[in-house]
Amino acid sequence: MSVNRRLELTNRIAATAFVVGGSLFCLGALLAQAHVGGPRLAGAVFLAGGVFFTTGGYTSVLLAANGHGGAWRWWSFEPRRLDWASAFVLFVGTLYFGVSLLAALIGDLTTAQEHRLVWSPEVVGCVLFLVSGHLALLQLRRQRRTGEDSSLDWWIAIVNQVGSALFMVAAIAAFVRPSTGDELAVGIANWGTFAGAACFAAAGVIQEFDRP
After folding, report:
1. What pTM value is reported for the model?
2. Given 11, 127, 129, 200, which is the most exposed site by the fewest CB atoms within 10 A?
3. Looking at residue 185, what DSSP letter applies?
């Protein structure tokens, strides 16, 4: 299989992973908001969505590693390239989300454990998502000077960045008060997660039409 063909297939996998992952996060947020099936059901749906997000993150690294020609590589380390750095930071962010989601699914945690194992990794993941989006926008600004950018790339980056900001809002609202053990604003946390996930799913749909 040629490198170009592999890039097209990898892009399709990444886009589909973000669509499915975002859709599962939307479903999990709706289940949590409606109190359907208890926290374990919503947690399981979120974790399944996290697996797809991580798949999308890794395949994004593959796209960045192989988007400049040469033999196919399953990994690379090119921190000076903004496109690679953006994809790598996104991938690491999905791993932090995975830690948070797994800990939340296990449940029965003290408030201190919630802060350390669930809330803190989630916030770190949100920060990394925002950093990844910022790097992607910087890369697109560079490409605009040479005419290498596309409107689809801009839409993907902007919609994802809005989703990352909404995830951060949801994470802040999900902070558990030590005095009561309750979240700051459950509704904002759930609807922020829903809206942020919908942005990532929409960006995935747009990416389906992009060509690396």
Report:
1. 0.93
2. 127
3. -
Contact (CB, 8 A) for 72 and 6: yes
Q: How far apart are CA 125 and CA 71, in angstroms?
A: 32
Q: What is the CA radius of gyration of the chain?
A: 17
Mean pLDDT calculated for residue range 31-59 = 95
Q: Could you report the per-residue pLDDT of 124-169, keeping only the tens digit for each?
A: 999 999 999 999 999 999 888 887 768 899 999 999 999 999 999 9
DSSP 176: B
Q: Name 176's bridge partners.
A: 183
Host domain of residue 137:
3-208
The tally of domains found in the chain comes to 1
> Per-residue DSSP letters for 73-108?
-S----TTSHHHHHHHHHHHHHHHHHHHHHHHHH--
The two tokens of residue 73 are 């590589």
* 3-class secondary-structure state, position 124: helix
Nearest to 32, CA basis, from 203, 212, 187: 187
8 A C-beta contact, residue 53 and residue 16: no
User: Cα-flanking dihedrals φ and ψ of residue 176, to 5°?
Assistant: -90, 125
Distance of alpha carbon 8 from alpha carbon 89, whole angstroms: 22
Q: Strands (DSSP E) along 29-174, which ranges?
A: none
Query: What does the pLDDT read at residue 8?
Result: 94
Cα–Cα dist 173/168, whole Å: 9
What mean pLDDT is reported for the chain?
93
